[in-house]
Amino acid sequence: QFADRWKPNTDNPDVKLLEVTSDWTCSTPYWGSAGSRGAGVEAEAAQDPLPMDLLRRRDPIQWYQEVLFWEDELDDNGVCRASVRVRVMPSFWFVLMLCELRVDNVLIREVATRFFCAFGSDTVLREWTWKESSYEALGSRGIDLRACPHISHQSVGTTLLSEADIKRQERHRLKLGGAAIAAGAHL
User: Fold this and answer.
1) How confident is the model at residue 179 (pLDDT cuts 50, 70, 90)?
2) Cβ 116 vs Cβ 125: under 8 Å
3) Rounded CA gap, 173 and 82, in Å?
4) Which residues pair with 117 in a beta bridge?
5) Are 47 and 28 in contact (CB under 8 A)?
6) Which region holds residue 78: left if phi is over 0, alpha if psi is between -120 and 50, else beta?
7) Cα separation of 72 and 79, whole Å?
8) What is the DSSP track for 102-123?
9) Which of 2, 59, 124, 134 has an alpha carbon 20 to 30 Å from 175's alpha carbon atom?
10) Distance separating the N- and C-terminal Cα atoms of the chain
């Protein structure tokens, strides 16, 4: 959708325009797999949001791990990275799968999947959100992207995205059956 901004500015007859059939930014809409061998997990649409008050509470963290799946600087045209963060608290566990993308001077995107499960529950809440905004739209909100501390080599800039930038959001309730729990269902 933004490929037209990256067309070559040349009249050289040796330069050929190619039909792009892949996403060179490494973005992914993946929202996680539910279940394990022989242990299905029922998924049903849900309206309930995640319990953000509980997630923001300052309870002691029992265990935390972050894994970076990939990071690419897009040939110095921005950055794309995918990671997973897992947090175990006294009364629940929480997983955040995050794909962050910044194409310099073009767009910022965040595709996030959040899983939440209270201990003792056989239900996992899954919330998948696709947020995206062009540099032009962010600039029209008064954000000066040339000197923005939220955009750096370490920071993609997805903190600049707001609720207004949500392009799509889906919520599911994943019902773990006894076989799934016994088999160690993975999400």
Assistant:
1) very low
2) yes
3) 24
4) 93
5) no
6) left
7) 6
8) EETTTEEEEEEEEEEEETT-SE
9) 59
10) 31
Both tokens of residue 165? 């930038």
The tokens of 170 are what? 């889906």
How far is 81 from 68, CA to CA, in rounded Å?
8
Which tokens is 136 given?
Answer: 């032009």
- Cβ 117 vs Cβ 86: under 8 Å: no
Phi, psi of 139, deg, nearest 5: -65, -35
CA proximity to 171, closest of 56, 64, 46: 46
User: Looking at this protein, which amino acid is placed at residue 75?
Assistant: D
Based on DSSP, count helices (H) and strands (E) in the chain, helices before strands.
3, 7
pLDDT of residue 4: 59
Collapsing DSSP to helix, strand or coil, 70 comes out as strand
